[in-house]
Amino acid sequence: MILLRRLLGDVLRRQRQRQGRTLREVSSSARVSLGYLSEVERGQKEASSELLSSICDALDVRMSELMREVSDELALAELAASAAASDTVPAPVRPKLNSVSVTSLAGVPEDRVTIKSPADVVDVVAA
């Protein structure tokens, strides 16, 4: 069974570690106990939306970015679980992106735009 709280905790931990910050620093900024933040990161506690908002503020990360990364992780975990259930070896999984005209991205030349992952893609309203 895929646990959302575990995926969320993994993503929060990665965000914190990318910044080179300690649990103590983030828990202090977020005004949440060190132990509770640790349990959230380990997927042992469900975080409320208010708590997630505080943690995101402390990490200077938009909650939508956090949830997008969690969603990508969940999609990969679901594919892996369904592949394991059917006893097949899946081909490498790559999230499918909708095609986007890069010339419509604020006039940025096409050769200057790099999209490495779905998290790099922002909502674009078609003209």
From TrEMBL:
Keywords: DNA-binding. It comes from the Bacteria. One of its GO terms (molecular function) is DNA binding. InterPro entries: Cro/C1-type_HTH, Lambda_DNA-bd_dom_sf, TransReg_Diox_bact_type. CDD domains: HTH_XRE. Residues 12-66 form the HTH cro/C1-type domain. GO terms for cellular component: cytosol. This is XRE family transcriptional regulator. Transmembrane segments: none annotated. It comes from Streptomyces sioyaensis.
